[in-house]
Amino acid sequence: MPINPHPLPHPVLRSIPREQHVISRRDISPNALRVLYRLREGGFGAYLVGGAVRDLLLGLHPKDFDVATDATPEQVKSLFRNCRLIGRRFRLAHVVYGREIIEVATFRANSDDGSGDRELEDGRLVRDNVYGTIEDDAIRRDFTCNALYYAIEDFSVRDYVGGYEDVQARVMRLIGDPETRYREDPVRMLRAVRLAAKLEFTIEPATAAPIPLLAPLLGEAAPARLFEEMLKLFLSGHAVASFEHLEAHGLLGALLPETAAALRSNRSGALRRMLVQGLANTDARVAADEPVSPAFLFALLLWPAYCRALAGLQAQGMHAEEAQRRAADRVTLHQVQTIALPKRFSLPMQEIWLLQQRFSSRQRKRVFRLLANPRFRAAFDFLVLRLAASDSHAADVEFWRQAQLSSGDELSANLEAAGAAGDGEGDDAPTRRRRRRRRRPATASAE
Ligand code: ATP
Ligand code: MG
């Protein structure tokens, strides 16, 4: 049997008593407390673990509360009527209270006992169901700050890997040998930058160093999992910081290869400016509790790729409308190989792109049709965002802003007046000017 050159660290318990840490039961979800107490009454060890303990120590409000225990999933199920067992790769108990789910996981070990309950494929973890002790459970977690346990029996925080100090110092540190841990699960690279962005932590040098080299491994991660991570990276209120961290650690090219290439070749930096502006708007919406949509997000993230593909097709002499459709399809098709963007998001994303060309029309019928399009608002917001890259369509933004404020009659009258004034766009008859406009290269490629 080969000897592992990078054994996991030896766990050493440090217990932080209640009076030396800030976690109060008042800040813990009552349902999570119920689960902890019931497990304890059943004779089992019961701990709050992971992100919740970390967030509570930082004075943040955890969005979910996970519990770790030495009870097996079946034993957990026998204690709760409202419990269901889920997962194959990672078997878990969900205790359900209305809309709140408390996830209860049995302590797991990181060692292979040969039972087939833990499977590695080319160093990657595909199944992880070997139960173990709390020490085993602590060292198989990703970062030290995520491996802290709050014990319901004495309200202490148990730390086996130095996580408590790292939380105080606001440091992300991988447990064990970073390269081995990233090879086991490349998504940990994304978790490192995501949590650093969200918590305003620094990534300690040994944890950061292998990331640019191992970034290509993300290409082999499950596309559905990467989609979920993308939503967490960009729709949790820290999109700008996430983007900057991904760029700084060489991960952007692995996630969004065509966008990364387009940003590199866009010397003026206009596309990057627009992207960052759009992400800042997204963060502001999350902060204000306004809805954010994955379709709009991906329209933004892939816009540089779309512009580049479109420019390429038009340079080959393809007609604008055909080129737009082809560029949208091509970019989507390439991207879904890495990130499983579901059709219910990719279709509206493409619509947002394709509608951009229609904003230059002042033809009455087209104006009204566009206003009535269910995707009008998203497409218009996108048009406004494009001002961050170029003001070549500032007049269009103004026109459509007014159009939304006007009544139908007012708008008709305005369009007619503009038509009568001779700019050739007010009626339905084809004019020289409009024909010229249609042949104009797509606005997208002008940026
Ligand atoms: P968030 O605030 O985004 O929920 P989190 O740390 O709670 O952050 P979860 O995905 O909810 O993230 O995971 C819960 C815990 O499970 C983590 O804190 C960590 O201990 C462990 N964990 C999650 N993903 C991994 C992984 N890929 N490898 C090892 N441990 C992991
Ligand atoms: Mg969590």
Describe the SSE topology.
Blueprint: E1 14-16, H1 30-41, E2 46-49, H2 51-57, E3 66-69, H3 73-79, E4 83-86, E5 92-97, E6 100-106, E7 118-121, E8 124-128, H4 134-139, E9 148-151, E10 157-159, H5 163-169, E11 171-172, H6 178-184, H7 187-199, E12 202-203, H8 205-208, H9 211-214, H10 223-234, H11 239-248, H12 252-255, H13 257-265, H14 270-287, H15 294-301, H16 303-315, H17 320-335, H18 343-355, H19 364-372, H20 376-385, H21 394-405, H22 408-423, H23 432-439
Helix pairs in contact: 7-10, 7-11, 13-16, 15-18, 16-17, 17-18, 18-20
The chain binds adenosine-5'-triphosphate and magnesium ion.
Can you describe what's shown?
The chain is of the alpha+beta class and 447 residues long. The protein has two domains: 6-175, Beta Polymerase, domain 2 (2-Layer Sandwich), CATH 3.30.460; 256-421, Orthogonal Bundle (cca-adding enzyme, domain 2). It is built from 23 helices and twelve strands. It has helices at 30-41, 51-57, 73-79, 134-139, 163-169, 178-184, 187-199, 205-208, 211-214, 223-234, 239-248, 252-255, 257-265, 270-287, 294-301, 303-315, 320-335, 343-355, 364-372, 376-385, 394-405, 408-423, 432-439; strands at 14-16, 46-49, 66-69, 83-86, 92-97, 100-106, 118-121, 124-128, 148-151, 157-159, 171-172, 202-203. The strands form three sheets. An eight-stranded mixed beta sheet has the order 1-10-9-2-3-6-5-4. Strands 7-8 form a two-stranded antiparallel sheet. The N and C termini lie far apart (58 Å). The model is unreliable at 424-447 (pLDDT under 50). Adenosine-5'-triphosphate is lined by residues 50-51, 66, 141-142, 146-147, 185, 187-188, 232.
